[in-house]
Amino acid sequence: MTIAAFDFFSDLNLAPGEPFNIADKPTSLFCIVAGNISSDPLKIKETLQHLSRIYKGVFFIDGPAEHGDLRDYDKNINVLNKIIKGYDNVAFLHSNVVVVDSIALVAANGWYGNYKLTDPIEQELANHYRLYDTQYLRNSIQKLQKHVDVKQIVMITSSIPNAELGFHTIDDLPDSIGPSICLGVDTENKVKTWLYGGYEHGADVNRFGIHYINNPFRRDQPWWPQRIEIPIN
Description:
This protein is α/β, with parallel strands linked by helices. The chain has one domain (2-232): 4-Layer Sandwich (Purple Acid Phosphatase, chain A, domain 2), CATH 3.60.21.10. The chain has helices at 41-54, 73-84, 120-144, and strands at 2-9, 30-34, 57-61, 90-92, 98-100, 103-108, 152-157, 191-196, 203-207, 210-214, 226-232. The strands form 2 sheets. It has a 6-stranded mixed β-sheet with strand order 5-6-7-8-10-9, with helices on one face. It has a 5-stranded mixed β-sheet with strand order 4-3-2-1-11, covered by helices on one side. A hairpin with a 2-residue loop joins strand 5 (98-100) and strand 6 (103-108). The protein is globular.
């Protein structure tokens, strides 16, 4: 059996000038980062440059940290696009499905349970983008159902997929419907793995045939990217 492998982590939340070096820790050729590298564009650039030097391919989706003010959402996305275009082996998964070894990587921020906003305008915008991202995930899964070159779909969000996967530690969820509602259109059962951020304790559980994994960066203990192995039939 052939195995596709990815290193996975999320929620670095690096401050400007904070060192980050995992050159001795890769276990795979590819790396997936589920959001929240930093709120500082220079630090985002430095981190992606570092990862691009130690991995053959880096796949990144934005998190709330990359959006200082949601009124500037489009501007923030453009800044990230500009940074990532500087690296041939870094892919921005925002509105962009990537297929690797018959595995489709489908990603979105999600805007569910991983941000705290007090400004009512920003909260309204977050609700809008949450619904938009969920619909994007739904449409992407639906389009891939009959795609002959895609055998599996790996979902990636920088927020928890649903309230259950917050393990009762996240308060004030916008409602009971998280991004995982999109799974209702997975009629061919192609979604087997969901990698997510927005949960500080880490998780590795199976629910209804799907493997949910969270691997946030930890400063208070030894930490490594988590190796994700996916069988390719």
